[in-house]
Amino acid sequence: MVLGNKCDDKNREVTYNEGMEYARSKNFGFLETSAKTGYNVDNAFNCIVREIYRNQSLEEEDDEELPEQANHNSRVSLGGKKKPS
Questions:
Q1: Which of 13, 47, 50, 85 has a 20 to 30 Å separation from 78 between CA atoms?
Q2: In whole numbers, what is the pLDDT of the chain averaged over residues?
Q3: 17-34 tens-digit pLDDT
Q4: How many distinct structural domains can be found in the chain?
Q5: pTM of the shown model
Q6: Residue 84 above 60 pLDDT?
Q7: Residue 81 lies in a domain
């Protein structure tokens, strides 16, 4: 998920289209937010939580398909480091 902050600022450094294009090129979602006005802040957190939940559900489905020895100590945390099962 790519978040463009300060969408309320007239002197923005990145346009909406540039942010959207970048997000699409990486196959990410895109939202513009404003911490000042609160615009899309709750929506951004909700989208991120849903994506984390979806990814963890997919990972658990993949783990169920592997024999126990194959997935031992192979879970990856959000930071990309291995964590014990």
A1: 13
A2: 80
A3: 999 999 999 999 999 999
A4: 1
A5: 0.59
A6: no
A7: no
CA dist., res. 31 & res. 56, Å (int): 22
Q: Are 36 and 42 in contact (CB under 8 A)?
A: no
Instruction: Please give the torsion angle defined by the CA atoms of residues 63, 64, 66 and 67, in that order, rounded to the nearest 10 degrees.
Output: 120
Which residues are registered as beta bridge partners of 3?
A: 31
Residue 60 lies inside a defined structural domain of this protein: yes
Q: Which of 47, 54, 7 is nearest to 29 (CA)?
A: 47
Task: Enumerate residues 6+ apart whose C-beta is below 8 A from 28.
Answer: 1, 2
| Domain enclosing residue 68, as ranges | 2-75
Six-digit token string for 78:
């959000």
Residue with tokens 């024999």: 67
SS3 content of the chain, % helix, strand, coil (to 5): 45, 10, 40
Residue 42, both tokens: 């709750």
* Pairing mode of beta strands 30-32, 2-4: parallel
